[in-house]
Amino acid sequence: MFKYAKRLLGPLAILTGSLVFPTIAAAQNNLVPEQLSKNADIIKIIRAIIQFILVVAFIIAFIMLLVGGIRWILAGGDEKAVAGARNTITAALIGLVIVLVAFAIIKLVETFFGVTIISGTFTIPTVEP
User: Fold this and answer.
1) CA distance 86 to 113
2) Residue range 33-60: average pLDDT?
């Protein structure tokens, strides 16, 4: 388990850095829109973080499901390889269920309490020349 976590942390750190550092550089050059740079509302930030985590978790679970399927196909009848592929597929399906349950809980909280956690408007900021 930790072996896979170690393999994942390096690329995840690189991905996070590649997403964070350009934003910092753009903020220093006044390329980020006003509502994101100066008057950032904490609720908007939390909403963006939750949306990002849900999307990334779903994509990772889906990719692991594909990897498990490919490992199963390439196993060639080897029982150990098939068992490993089956475990990967099982873990990916459990991950997908967890992500979908988290999404359902967030939607229930939104419905019952009348708040917008992830249902708010989602716009991609653009830079005007």
Assistant:
1) 40
2) 73
pLDDT at 13: 65
- The contacts found for 79-84 with CB under 8 angstroms, 24 or more apart, are none
- 19 within domain boundaries: no
**Token reading at 36:** 């994101």
Q: How large is the average pLDDT for residues 101-124?
A: 78
Domain count, the chain: 1
Please give the full DSSP string across 26-83, using - where no structure is assigned.
HHHTT-S-HHHHTS--HHHHHHHHHHHHHHHHHHHHHHHHHHHHHHHHHTTT-HHHHH
Predicted confidence band of residue 120 (pLDDT cuts 50, 70, 90): low
Q: What is the identity of the amino acid at 98?
A: I
The 8-class DSSP code of residue 127 comes to -
For residue 20, give the H/E element and its range.
Answer: helix 2-28
Range of the domain at 105: 41-113
